[in-house]
Design goal:
This protein has 21 helices and no strands. It is a multi-pass membrane protein.
């Protein structure tokens, strides 16, 4: 067996990074703090915008349209604008996007702004999030190497879910205390502080690609990136795992009508909406801290099925406590995205990473938005319990098919992770933090891959000559 081989054929022991090692990297602390500020500000803005629009128009439809604008820009412009993260220095892209968004959100606080102008400002603000997110996702593998990247992704995911769980409660209280426009002003300030943190905390790095006239054809880069991802079986499999979230996001979109099958109270709605994020936090923590890197890859398919299977239980009309448990288990299963993300980063060359991350993320948002829309329409006819159960059945079927394909190629991914040249580690870790994580923090993953986690053997040497890549599945 491979584990008993000796000499030069023996595999090096797998190294699992700790959260302490990750936070010891100064650049990661800057990225994490900027992200946390953004999440907190966004939660305030979501609540404030909903209240502001409804107070001004009195229309639930217009309020819903404003909220829907948070989905549309990344779908429409995400794959194109994400390519900016490969054409310009990534720190510069992030700082400029933060400053522009601070200005746009500040304009939302003006009382004279008509509804159409408010919608335009929301659209542009969310649109600028696409190149920012792509640049941050593409930069993270340069900051964290090996299993530290997986631990860092888990920390980001836990931070996101934790702010989401607490945000709707604290956000409503803050908006009630300070007012809608003041809450939007706070959001604008968080963008400005985030830009300052990134300027101070991140090193200067050159643009991954030369900005030749041909390179500036962002639409062409998007097409080349799609051809790259969907033309490779490993990347195609990984991005499919990432987009599987469209099925298990349906319960979140139906939380209010599902709560109506019980007592319909706001407390029940909040309990249901927090069940899946709570499971995600627990799953991400356990999966990143107590499961070996190669075991994450092997168990990815089973975890994906776990993300969908508990939802089938809705067909039995379980009591509220059982629904919360089932939705929480679904959240635990979704931790497979950490492995998919790491594998994707390992497969995509650094020069095309931003485009790859943008494409994958846009697919995630499009799938989630479409699934919630279809689920809401179906719930009008079938009821929320039947729709959640149906989403579970369909998701489980797709996950099972993806797992059959993944089981045939996962061995190549694991081998690529172990055989990646050690020289890559020196390139991935910043010089001023090279020793922060300690000598044991060896690189156990191949070259960084988008958050989808697809790991593609054979593409590792395609240095800068590869077309625009695909975006991760965070």
């Amino acid at each position: 067996m491979a584990e008993r081989q000796s000499g030069r054929h023996r595999r090096p022991p797998e190294v699992q990074a700790t959260y302490r090692e990750v936070f010891a990297v100064g650049e990661f602390r800057a990225l994490w703090l900027a992200q946390a500020l953004s999440f907190i500000g966004d939660q305030l803005a979501q609540v404030a915008l909903a209240v502001l629009v409804f107070d001004r128009t009195g229309s639930p439809l217009l309020t819903g349209i404003t909220y829907a604008l948070t989905y549309l820009p990344p779908i429409v412009g995400g794959p194109v604008l994400s390519g900016l993260a490969d054409l310009f220095p990534r720190r510069t892209v992030m700082v400029v996007c933060d400053l522009l968004r601070a200005g746009l959100v500040a304009l939302m606080t003006l009382q004279s702004a008509p509804f159409w102008a408010l919608c335009a400002l929301v659209f542009l603000t969310v649109l600028l999030g696409a190149p920012f997110t792509a640049a941050r996702a593409a930069l993270l593998p340069d900051v964290l190497s090996g299993d530290r990247y997986v631990a860092g992704s888990a920390i980001n995911n836990i931070t996101h879910q934790a702010t989401q769980m607490l945000g709707f409660l604290a956000g409503g209280a803050i908006v009630a205390a300070v007012g809608t426009r003041e809450a939007l002003a706070i959001d604008a300030v968080t963008f400005g502080v985030s830009a300052a943190v990134l300027v101070v905390g991140l090193q200067r790095r050159p643009a991954p690609r030369r900005r030749e006239a041909e390179s500036l054809a962002l639409w062409r880069g998007t097409r080349d990136g799609a051809r790259l991802v969907f033309g490779d079986k490993t990347l195609r499999s990984l991005v499919s795992f990432a987009w599987l979230c469209a099925f298990y996001v349906v319960p979140e979109g139906l939380a209010a009508p599902y709560a109506a099958t019980f007592d319909g109270s706001a407390v029940t709605v909040g309990l249901l909406m927090s069940a899946t994020p709570t499971g995600m936090v627990a799953g991400a923590f356990v999966f990143s801290r107590f499961v070996r890197p190669s075991s994450r890859i092997r168990s990815m398919g089973w975890m994906a099925m776990l993300a969908c299977a508990p939802l089938v239980g809705a067909a039995a009309h379980p009591p509220l406590w059982a629904v919360v448990v089932l939705w929480g288990l679904s959240g635990v299963g979704s931790a497979y995205q950490l492995a998919a993300n790491a594998a994707f980063v390992a497969a995509v060359p650094p020069s095309g990473r931003g485009q790859a991350f943008g494409l994958a993320q846009s697919g995630i948002l499009a799938g989630q938005g479409l699934a919630i829309l279809i689920g809401g329409a179906a719930a009008q006819v079938l009821g929320p319990e039947a729709v959640v159960a149906l989403a579970g059945v369909l998701g489980l079927s797709v996950a099972a098919m993806l797992t059959l394909v993944w089981n045939q190629i996962r061995a190549e991914v694991i081998v690529a992770m172990h055989e990646r040249p050690a020289a890559d580690e020196g390139a991935a870790a910043p010089a001023d933090d090279a020793g922060a994580a300690g000598p044991d923090a060896e690189r156990t993953l191949p070259a960084p891959v988008p958050a989808d986690g697809r790991s593609r053997p054979g593409m590792d040497d395609a240095e800068g000559g590869r077309p625009a890549a695909v975006r991760p599945t965070a």
